[in-house]
Amino acid sequence: MEKPNQDWTARVEELAHTRLSECYQCGKCTAGCPRGMIMDVPPARMMRAAQVGDILETARADSIWRCLSCLTCSARCPKSVNVSSVVDAFRQISIETNSMSPESAKIVEFQKAFLRNVRRNGRTNEVEMATDFEVRYFFRRFDVMNVINTGLLGTKMLKRGKMNFAIGSPVKDKDLVKRIFSKCDVKL
């Protein structure tokens, strides 16, 4: 058995607030995961990678961004290991080391647009958020098809009354939203 990279293992444990050594690879996390069968690295393999310090390769996996965060993996663990938090730790490491696939980078950019929108307004404004995402994503990747597809989707949503152009008022207690973001130390 190879010697674990203690630095990376400790980093995952610190971010996830869970003990990786508690996992004994029973596989219940993967068996219960609604997306486990289609993941390139299922939850049990992520746990093993974290235990042996094989962090950077797993941080490149699309699975960490495809996870639904439904917490089924954590709920099914007989040792109460917080598997979902380990996935979140892999996400954070993936962002910090910039080791994600182009498709995953698109997901991350969308999540950042969502968080910027909530930080600014205290709630989401779909039109503003979509515009922010499309402009930033387009100028990073020059993905014209993404802009066209989003425009077509927006048209469908508008026809069905699912998109509101009226810019609503921000939440009343914007200081509360500011405190939440500063406590979470979110960097966008």
Can you characterise this structure?
This protein is mainly α and 188 residues long. The chain folds into two domains: 6-96, Fumarate Reductase Iron-sulfur Protein, Chain B, domain 2; 102-184, no CATH class. The chain is built from eleven helices and no strands. It has helices at 6-16, 28-32, 43-52, 55-59, 63-66, 72-76, 83-96, 102-121, 126-141, 144-159, 174-184. Helix 1 (6-16) crosses helix 7 (83-96). The protein is globular and about 50 Å long.
Encode the helix/strand succession as letters: HHHHHHHHHHH
Q: Rg to the nearest angstrom?
A: 19 Å
Total DSSP E strands: 0
Report on the biggest sheet.
none
| Model regions low in confidence, pLDDT < 50 over at least 5 residues | none
Gross CATH architecture of the largest domain: Orthogonal Bundle
Using the alpha-carbon principal axes, give the shape.
globular
Distance between the termini: 39 Å
Mean residue pLDDT: 87
Provide keyphrases for this structure.
188 residues, Fumarate Reductase Iron-sulfur Protein, Chain B, domain 2, 62% helix
Question: What is the fold's blueprint, element by element?
Answer:
Blueprint: H1 6-16, H2 28-32, H3 43-52, H4 55-59, H5 63-66, H6 72-76, H7 83-96, H8 102-121, H9 126-141, H10 144-159, H11 174-184
